[in-house]
Amino acid sequence: MSALYAKLLAMLLLLLLGQMMQQRLHLPESFFDGANSLLIRITLPAMILASMDTPFSYDRLKTSLHLLLIVSVAFASVILTLELWRSRSCTTSKALGLYQYLILVGNTAFMGYPIIEAIYGDEGVFYASVCNLIHNLITFSYAVSLLTRGADTESPRRTASACLIATFAGISLFLLPVQLPAALHQALDWVGSITIPLCLLCTGARLNSSTILHAIRSGPVWAVSLTRLLLFPIILAPVLLLLNFRGMMIVIPTVLFATPAALTAGTFAQQYGCDADFAASTVMLSNLLALLTLPLLVVLLHP
Q1: What is the separation of C-alpha 245 from the centre of its chain, rounded to a whole number of angstroms?
Q2: Whole-number Å distance between alpha carbons of 82 and 103
Q3: Euclidean distance between CA atoms 259 and 154, whole angstroms
Q4: DSSP symbol at 157
């Protein structure tokens, strides 16, 4: 357990280092755009693929199928609730779509993966990648469509995520009786190891004081943030416990659903004509609060 606390402390130190880095270097927005592209298109897919390059076992397949079922049912429940909310809400369609997007799409890769990796190592990343398959499918289909409801924009094009492709490739690699050549696996492992330090540095750098002050004064920002950080785990974890799941079968889905709003939410909101400032404030506040809620959740679920 002390090793887990050491990793959580190291993550906090990297976030603080990211903030200090931004204060000294005043990195432009183009840096973060480039870093985000590098993470999403190169380093995170490499990390996923390397973690899934493992010998086939029926136990892992059984666990993966159980986790897929848990995550699928959880997402279906959330989507049904969002649609019921939409049918009864008096909020404008565009604003409501943004609220729903921020509630549904989490920062699973940048905040969920480091926590899970700290607890379960590469095995945890493997299962988190399997769970994130459903998350990515929903993110680039239903979730994006939420932003276009009530907006004068064209329907979003189908987006092929490198992380999604890497997950499918990794699952295929796991199911087939082959493994990557040692040199290729090592290269992927090296590239993938950049992911967690870089994403934590960038997250810390974007926690600027002015946006935080704006965020803490907004009731809707708090409501959306606390729904992801507290309401989801408060509901999901006891339900899984009652269904007799234990260990990582509870921890991994709950951590992924308890992650803050996705870092790319502001970019998507701006692209589809929604309130990008509200999205940015929610991303900032939820990611800041997650520094407290996620470690507390880990202590409660993985004592």
Answers
A1: 22
A2: 9
A3: 30
A4: P
Q: Give the CA angle between residues 242, 243, 248 to the nearest 5°.
A: 100
Residues 303 and 293: their CA atoms lie apart, in Å, by 15
Output the CA torsion 104→299→204→32 (10° steps): -40
Residue with tokens 């945890």: 124
Confidence band for 66, pLDDT divided at 50, 70 and 90: very high
Report which of 302, 288, 296 is spatially closest to residue 16, judged by C-alpha positions: 288
Output the six-digit token pair for 99: 């609220």
| Rounded distance between C-alpha atoms, residue 204 and residue 227, angstroms | 22
In angstroms, rounded to a whole number, what is the distance separating the alpha carbons of residues 54 and 24?
42
Q: What is the DSSP letter of 261?
A: B
Residues 252-271 have a mean pLDDT of 84
The DSSP symbol for 126 reads H
Angstrom distance (rounded) from CA 287 to CA 18:
14
pLDDT, tens only, 131-152? 988 888 888 778 888 888 755 5
Q: Tokens 């549904």 map to which residue?
A: 104
Secondary structure of residue 106 in the 3-state scheme: strand
